Known about the structure:
By secondary structure, this protein is mainly alpha-helical. It contains 18 helices and no strands.
Amino acid sequence: MKNKGYTSIRHILKYISLFGSVEILKILANLTRGKVTAILLGPLGAGLIAIYQNILEVIRSCTNIGLETASIQQLSEIDTDAQKAEVTLMAKVIRTWSLAMSFLNLIACIAIFLYAGNIFFKDYQPHREILMLTPAAFLIPIAIGECAILKGTHKLKRVATVELIGAITTVLTTTIIYLTLGLQGIIPGITICFAIEAVLHLYFCTKVYPYQIAPFSKEIWKRGIPLLKFGIPYAVTAIMGAITTTILYSIITSTEEVGLYKAGYSLIMYYLGVILSSNATDYFPRLTSVCHDEFQRNLTVNKQIHVSLTITTPIVMLFILALPLTTHILYTPEFLPMSILCTMAGLFQLHRSISLPLEYVSLAHGHSWMFLCLECIYNMLTIIASYYLYHHWGLYGIGLALSLVGIINTIILGIINHYYYHTTISSRNWTSIICASGIIFVIMLLCQSHNTTLRYGIGIALTLATAIYSYHTLSRGIKNEE
């Protein structure tokens, strides 16, 4: 894994292309679902979906003990060709613990219904629909465990296939359900989507590693303790992320605005997914395998940042310029206020492509507590910035808060990685980051102008120039490696 080709720009582009292609199709599927939701359910329906999904995310965060990341990290250090018995044993450990987490999810869902429903709903009424989320809550860890096995053993094409089929199937299913049942179909739609995801992961993973569990084996539970030690801080991090989302929803004054925020943030993450989807699937296992070699680690991190940044910059520029048209096509005129949030979050989108490769360094070393501290700082900054800026400028302020915190997070991660892990962002990458940030900021300012000629004339010219430069930069990098 430490050979030149494994850390080359060509390799990175290969998996960005693979998962980017899948993400593009997933984007089309998910945006179709968003369009259907906007037409059939409106902002209120989108807001309810956001709240229910957030409840499931909180449950998942509280119970999964960071199982996915811990499992990938453990499996990535095993030679899957030479140690097949060890891989099979680890798969059994992961599945046994995943099933245990499924039952914990059931308990957590009931507990939220009994004691914590008012955290998510402000009407102080018992919401029995929370109990209807229990089947979905049960299925989540099963899908997570199977996905972790596929990623940790580098079965990346199977992961891509599952994601693609799942996206298409779920959008067709939810369309039928929302069309038939309207708002009453939200929870059945969520449940069926998670069922489809679990079944697909089980089908494709058991083809490689037959399903085996050993709930009465002490050895299996003992083998899971390292996963637990690694995963608890990561689970706490996920809980903080879910709580941060819950707090953001409570800061926003109406369910309709929650729906607008959710739609806008989802739209941002859809487009970022084209680039970032390869990070957890290819980059993290690859980084884990070289994390103890300082030269290879620096090379791997910097090349990932370079490629991600080079590709992301023109995509974000195009995304911002096309927002008014995109909102009309993908949603309805009711969702137009979300476009300003997406515009002001332009720098967040750019810096997410930089910060994510840096975040994985601590996880690759197994230092999940460091990851927890860094995420705690990020979430605190997000809440504080969003609270103050939302009360001054509404959704515009939340977009601006995301961008400001994104920049600060990149700087903090750069400093921590430099002094603690001796992983330094190259001067070339820092120069590219500053230049790209400046260009994105100009596009954000242009989109505030009411002069259409100025906005699109200069904006399109800058985007084309940046895209051409990015193409030549990557082409030159590939030639230099050959």
